[in-house]
Design goal:
The protein has about 230 residues and is mainly α. It folds into two domains: about 160 residues, no CATH class; about 50 residues. Helices cover about 75% and strands about 0% of the residues. Helix 4 packs parallel to helix 11 and helix 7 packs antiparallel against helix 8. It comes from Haloferax elongans ATCC BAA-1513. One of its GO terms (biological process) is L-valine transmembrane transport. It is a multi-pass membrane protein.
Length: about 230
């Protein structure tokens, strides 16, 4: 009986603590899809094809409010721009992968998979990089899909006292706080968050708060960095 590569098992094990945060987040995504009028099958298909928590939730709400397609697509692109940076950072470690392996890796790329894999590669030089990455990324993908399906099936039947609406912001706060390592990143986070709240308070439609806040946050971070913000 074939055994799984040890690095794959290590990846699943290292990602396991993050699964606890992914479950309520996925439930929220499933519930939101059904609440906005998608069928269970559409919700499942959407989650499988898009597989991007933050932009997935934003797109679902925008589609539910009949936002123009350009706004829906633009929001998803802006929210996921960080994946370009992740890809550029991790690409040197994937240079020797076959084209099919690179395709699989690109589809499974998430914040958590990037962070855990890069840390492992820098710490353990003898790691089977693809096996470890798939262990992390596929386990996260599987948990997300199961949680999303459960949310779509249960729909509005989930008890409101569970407070699942807080799952998404809490998950991203957990990822955000450790990333605020210097003045530039801190300025970007503070300005982006402040602008997002201001745009929402102003009543601007179609979740333009995401796009405007992202642009403002990046601009603030670049400005501070140009004046020695890494000190």
């Amino acid at each position: 009986m074939p055994t799984l590569p040890s690095d794959f098992v290590d990846g699943v094990r290292d990602a396991a603590p993050l699964h606890l945060g992914i479950v309520p987040f996925g439930l929220v995504a499933g519930v939101a899809a059904v609440e906005q009028g998608l069928s269970i099958f559409h919700a499942i298909g959407f989650s499988t094809v898009v597989f991007a928590g933050a932009s997935q939730l934003a797109m679902i709400e925008l589609l539910g409010s009949d936002a123009p397609l350009a706004i829906v697509v633009g929001t998803a692109v802006v929210v996921n721009l960080r994946m370009l940076m992740y890809s550029a950072s991790i690409a040197p470690y994937f240079r020797d992968f076959a084209a099919r392996s690179k395709t699989i890796a690109s589809y499974l790329l998430t914040d958590q998979a990037f962070a855990l894999s890069l840390a492992r590669y820098n710490r353990e030089t003898g790691t089977d990089r693809f096996a470890y990455y798939v262990g992390v990324a596929f386990s996260l993908w599987a948990v997300w899909q199961v949680a999303t399906v459960a949310g779509a099936v249960l729909g509005t039947g989930l008890p409101p006292e569970w407070g699942l609406g807080f799952a998404a912001p809490l998950v991203f706060l957990a990822l955000l706080v450790p990333a605020l390592k210097d003045r530039a990143s801190a300025a970007s986070g503070v300005v982006g968050g402040t602008v997002a709240v201001a745009v929402v308070a102003a009543g601007i439609p179609f979740h333009l708060d995401i796009i405007v806040a992202a642009i403002a946050g990046v601009a603030a971070g670049l400005t501070v960095e140009s004046f020695g913000g890494d000190a």
